[in-house]
Design goal:
By secondary structure, this protein is α+β, with helices and mostly antiparallel strands. Helix content is 48%, strand content 11%. It contains seven helices and four strands, in the order ααααβααβββα. Strands 2-1-3-4 form a four-stranded mixed beta sheet, with helices on one face.
Amino acid sequence: MIDEHARKTIEGFIKKFPCGDSALVPSLCLIQKENGYISGSDMEYLSEILNLPEARIFSAASFYSMLHLSPRGKYHIQVCTNISCSILEKETLFDYISKKLSITDGESTQDGLFSLEAVECLGACGYAPAMMINADHYENLDFNRMDKIIDLIREYENPAEK
């Protein structure tokens, strides 16, 4: 839900930009930063604030891969599935991570620590295979390096399980 502080920030966006459409993406980013994702009720309320149709809000929220319409894991893994990132091994990096975490595209692990998403391109074709975890880029990946990254995150989050 959009709280009073977020509403005032969004109203500031409206004053800063010439039209409601210009305030739309910054407002969606703010909502996601506050709540972790953008809910249907958030979009409904935002349409009232910006005086835009709900369909326009949903259109923008669902278009940008950086915006999420459902809760994600604490560590959101986006794996490039473009051809450059998929041809280096018989098994793709996405498939390997999916098996390792026992989740598939759009799912989260039971503990809420990881979520997984296949994305078309991360702009790192020359350094494939590539992925992002939250805002951090990882390139030149192989399965061993992937194991180390996931294991380090698990150790950091659950130090007693070492």
